[in-house]
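Appendix B, record 7
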Amino acid sequence: MTKNIDANDTKKLNSLSSTSLDYLKKAQKVLQSKLSRQDIAKETGILYSTIRTMVSRPDRLNYTSWLNVMLLAEYHDRLERKDSENDDGPARLDLRNTSIVLNGKLFTDEKYQDMSTTAKLIYGYLIHPAQKRYKDEAGREYVCCYSSDLEQLANHTRATIRRVLLELQEHGLLSDYKIRSRPQRYYVQPIASPLNDCMTGMHTAIVRTTQK
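Structure tokens (predicted):
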């Protein structure tokens, strides 16, 4: 039976600072997780035999080196950051009550005259200021959202949304997108002129969605 670390368990734990105790608890969570021992050893750099011992005998965590504890705690934090971005995804815009401002150049610039209304709507949603921006390993900025949100927004099937994304790429408004990730990554590109520069003397559309 696994024993949880508690500040009242032993005199040793009572003497720990709150920060040190936090490291221990994070390390314990990693060892109690469903991650394989091989993966933990690979990601932390700790010997596999040491990981195996601490997993099978949780009390050994109290006697391992502080370097091992800190490596496990750091791995715990990395996993949490990854989960926050890839699993939980971004805070979704409320599609029932979202105002989407479309850059006027989408309607006045000859370059975008053949773009479908759906493509312009999807672009306005992806580049919406409320969308949280992330950076990938190469430093490229992208936004995340679920394909189901785009389908709901445009009231189209997934196949149609994929054609719309290709349309955005052809017009230079989407440099890339990763549909295999969840949520999906969209590398949205700004229109040549900033929104504020094109609002004077140009048409700017404000779309207010009303989905229930």
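Remarks on this record: The longest helix spans residues 66-86. The chain has a mean pLDDT of 76.
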